[in-house]
Amino acid sequence: MSDLKFCPDCNNILYSYSDDQRLELNFVCRLCDYSRKADPNSFSDNCISRTAHNYHGKDNIFVSPLVVKDPTLGRTNHWKCARCGYNKAAFFQLPERVNDDAMMLVFVCCNPGCGYWAKQAYDDDVEGTNTYNTPGTTQYVSGKHGDEEMQTMDDMADLFGEDGI
Predict the structure, then answer these.
(1) DSSP labels for 144-162?
(2) CATH assignment of 65-159, among 2.20.25.10, 3.40.50.300, 1.20.210.10, 2.40.110.10
(3) Which of 34, 37, 93, 129 is the Cys-Cys partner for 29 at CB 3.0 to 4.6 Å?
(4) Where do the domains of the chain lie?
């Protein structure tokens, strides 16, 4: 499987584009118009794969394990992988056309080689651990005060990539 390539300017995914007149392979960013030619001596630049998925239902979701390399996705240390126990995950929101539940998050394990992913359960709180993605596995503890409340705010800033500046 080929590696994903990202734009050095805006960190979005670079898409391959074939210039049939010049017989060149190019990589193009759809957001900022960055483009570059593929290095003819590089195997990773010249190995292109395409995967087509035909979905039959809204619960038929495919999540590539390479999605954890996307620097534009959110990260959290408050999710535990049910497969390997790793405590870091990348997450993204499912579009409404894929899932009837608005704001449904998908967490993907960041442990290299694991690739496990799970949808957020209805009552899951991001701060809890998600084991086997079943309702009732995590609990929200209310009534935090003082330094604990400040620590929670810092965790939320880390969750959404805010530096607090």
Answers:
(1) --THHHHHHHHHHHHHTT-
(2) 2.20.25.10
(3) 34
(4) 1-50, 65-159
